Amino acid sequence: MTTALLLMDLQNTILERYGPASGDFLDRVVAAQERAEQAGLLVVLVRVKFAPGRPEISPRNKMFAAARSMSVGADDRGSEPHDRLLRGKGEVVVTKKRVSAFAGSDLEVILRSHDVTELVLGGISTGGVVLSTVREAADRDYALTVLEDLCLDADEEVHRVLTQKVFPRQAEVIASADWRP
């Protein structure tokens, strides 16, 4: 079984929303990324990014409609993965256009080209990209592990319910310190 570590939506603009709390979180993410690199695993950094003018966003899309009026440009630093994750150690950056890491991206092609059958997931938010990617990856028959402490959500109750009650139906849910690549 070939494994890939997916670190999702850990880009500058999103991490800034969590303020100082993102410091310890980012330390754990980097530690897991280092372990994955040392084990020779594929590390995929997934980001959400739109073209100038955001033509991909429908006004009917409640989640992304607010992004249509944002003043930041499509090529600004805010959409880039955090600098601590861009380590130059073979990580791949995938750009998506919707909530799931698979939606509007070339993730599936990359995973197939590396014969990946198992995904280890972390990201912001638990109720957004992590939930959508767990569901879609399970439907695509990937073996799944969610690193519970590498997921953040603005709503702690949503995070708790998903990691303790929903995700275990389709994934192993563990702390990042317990993950052995």
Descriptive tags:
181 residues; globular; alpha/beta; Rossmann fold; 5 helices; Isochorismatase-like_dom
Characterization of this structure:
The chain is of the alpha/beta class. It has a single domain (2-51, 78-178), classed as Isochorismatase-like (Rossmann fold, 3-Layer(aba) Sandwich), CATH 3.40.50. It has five helices and six strands. The protein has helices at residues 12-16, 21-38, 107-113, 126-139, 156-166; strands at residues 2-8, 42-48, 92-96, 116-124, 143-152, 172-174. The chain has a six-stranded parallel sheet, with helices on both faces.
CATH homologous superfamily assignment: Isochorismatase-like
Number of domains as seen in the coordinates: 1
Largest sheet entry: 6 strands, parallel
Order of helices and strands: EHHEEHEHEHE
| Strand coverage percent | 15-25%
DSSP strand tally:
6
Give the strand line-up of the largest sheet.
3-2-1-4-5-6
Kindly name the structural category.
alpha/beta
**Could you name the CATH topology?**
Rossmann fold
Domain Isochorismatase-like: 3-178
InterPro entries: Isochorismatase-like_dom (IPR000868), Isochorismatase-like_hydrls (IPR050272), Isochorismatase-like_sf (IPR036380)
GO molecular function, one term: hydrolase activity
Protein name: Nicotinamidase-related amidase
Write a short abstract of this structure.
With 181 residues, the chain is α/β, with parallel strands linked by helices.
SSE map:
Layout lengths: L1 E7 L3 H5 L4 H18 L3 E7 L43 E5 L10 H7 L2 E9 L1 H14 L3 E10 L3 H11 L5 E3 L7
Parallel strand pairs: 1-2, 1-4, 2-3, 4-5, 5-6
